[in-house]
Design a protein that fits this description.
Blueprint (H helix, E strand, L loop, with lengths): L1 H13 L7 E2 L7 E4 L2 E4 L5 E2 L12 E3 L4 E3 L11 H18 L9 H12 L5 H17 L13 E9 L16 E4 L3 H10 L5 E8 L5 E6 L5 E12 L9
Antiparallel strand pairs: 1-4, 2-3, 5-6, 7-11, 8-10, 9-10, 9-11
Helix pairs in contact: 1-2, 1-4, 3-4
Length: 246
């Protein structure tokens, strides 16, 4: 969410009515999340000036660990230097820390492609935004889910119950520090996740939604601490359903 919001912001800056805008003091502390969108807190160091040049050798974009040769345009400006500077800063301050983590395994190759392409500046901001929107579509639609054995048949569903809230086993990347709370596309995906975790004995799909509209599923190590809830369904592993309390 943070990276996509940042890319949308950089897309606007690259195509603003004032021209391509560069953020000269590009640091994480210069941004803040407002209602799920990344905002720039300080525009004092923003500029529409692009580096003047006489030849291509005047247009090297230098960073501490990398340098990129750019072209000198016919009007004597380094082509796309503001856009590329913003994009590489997004890569080194945000993408490298956020993209490799917490995505479903099937989507990680797509995010690795974005990471590598922006790290080498093979993508401009237009291509980067398009790549992010493709990943978002796959994520929201569930198209990233590969054909796999169905796991839901290994569970018993009990309508009108849910598991008790409280501290339980932890998992990554959980939305709760008290237990294992993950976003899922469907009950079937939740069953597959539970089946892949040795501690998991039951789960419920909650009414909570993430910013993409995906529901959150709570995974529990105990299949029997149930309380009535008319709007809930608890799914219990068949192998765990023979417990005495159940």
């Amino acid at each position: 969410q943070i990276c996509l919001s940042l890319v949308k912001l950089l897309f606007y800056l690259a195509h603003s009515p004032l021209g391509s805008i560069v953020l000269l003091d590009f640091q994480p502390r210069q941004f803040v999340m407002v209602d799920g969108n990344l905002k720039v807190t300080d525009m004092d160091d923003a500029s529409t000036e692009e580096l003047s040049c006489k030849e291509d050798n005047d247009c090297t974009l230098d960073f501490p660990t990398k340098s990129f040769p750019l072209k000198c345009s016919v009007v004597g400006k380094c082509e796309g230097i503001n856009e590329k500077k913003n994009l590489f800063n997004a890569y080194r301050y945000f993408f490298t820390y956020l993209l490799p983590h917490s995505a479903p395994p099937a989507l990680r190759p797509f995010l690795s492609d974005i990471l590598n392409a922006t790290g080498d500046l093979r993508y401009g901001i237009n291509e980067t935004l398009k790549a992010f929107e493709k990943v978002l579509h796959l994520y929201k639609s569930g198209l990233y889910l590969q054909k796999r054995p169905l796991h839901l048949k290994d569970y018993i569903s009990l309508k009108g119950f849910r598991t008790m809230e409280g501290e339980d086993y932890k998992c990554w990347p959980s939305y709760s520090h008290l237990g294992c709370l993950l976003s899922v596309h469907s009950v079937e995906e939740a069953a597959a996740i539970c089946s892949s975790q040795s501690q998991c004995q039951s789960f419920i799909v909650t009414q909570q939604r993430t910013w993409t509209g995906r529901p959150l599923a709570s995974f529990r190590s105990s299949p029997t601490d149930l309380i009535p809830d008319a709007n809930a369904v608890v799914y219990i592993k068949r192998s765990a359903s023979s417990g005495e309390r159940l």
